Amino acid sequence: MTIDDKTGLVIRPQKPISVSRMEKDPAKLQDLYDEGYNLASMVKGL
Questions:
Q1: Fewer CB within 10 A of the end CB, N or C, for the chain?
Q2: Which pLDDT value is given to residue 1?
Q3: Other C-beta atoms within 10 Å of 36: how many?
Q4: Between 4 and 31, whose confidence is greater?
């Protein structure tokens, strides 16, 4: 993909995000990271 293609891929969470911008709870942040990692790994095969 090049810049001229003007195409892209958007990955969004499947469930609502339950963390704030200033979240300090490591468990919540890890859960959010894990969800994003799992979604990206599913899309990787496309």
A1: C
A2: 52
A3: 13
A4: 31
Q: Is 6 left (phi over 0), alpha (psi -120 to 50) or beta?
A: left
Token pair of 21 as six digits? 């911008």
Q: For residues 8 and 15, give the distance between their C-alpha atoms in angstroms, rounded to a whole number.
A: 22
CA–CA dist 38, 18 (Å, integer): 17
Contact (CB, 8 A) for 32 and 21: no
Task: Output the CA–CA distances (angstroms, integers) from residue 26 to 1, 9, 35, 40, in the order listed.
Answer: 35, 28, 14, 21
pTM for this predicted structure = 0.68
pLDDT at 7: 75
